[in-house]
Design brief:
This protein has 174 residues and is of the alpha+beta class. It has seven helices and four strands.
Amino acid sequence: MDFLDLAKQRCTIRSFSDKTIEKEKLDYILESGRVAPSACNKQPQRIIVVQNEKNIGKVQKAYKTFGSKCVMIICRDERNALVRPFDDKCSGDLDIGIVSDHMMLAAREKGIGSVMVGLFDPRIIRNEFDLPDYIHPTALLILGYPKESFLDANRHQTQRKPISETVMMEKYIE
């Protein structure tokens, strides 16, 4: 399968079956995140894989997990992020997005669904998982086998803006 086909097949899943993700597939997904690019190769990601029911319950205090049996807490280690000297913009959140995207695509390749969540309470995650101050919970990557099925890959024809509305050549145009 070529990349664009894979990208079109990836979709957000918000209802997971009870089936556990096999270790080989989970390892493949994690390796896909490990090889993801990051600013100056700083690799600020720190990933906590949560599969124990008690710990899934801890995550659910911060955000729902849609019946998933596997949640990755994607954190940013502030000691390993590039900070732009011009405006102090940290690249770490962008790096986390790239890592997460790699893992979502790898998951879909293996028939596993995903949803990446940024709208969760990081204070709860920090407290429940006893994270040090320099580790920032940035995203939740919720994984599992879909309870129903994946969405139609052709949905992008109607659910995405045309390129002409989002891409400009050489200058910004309103």
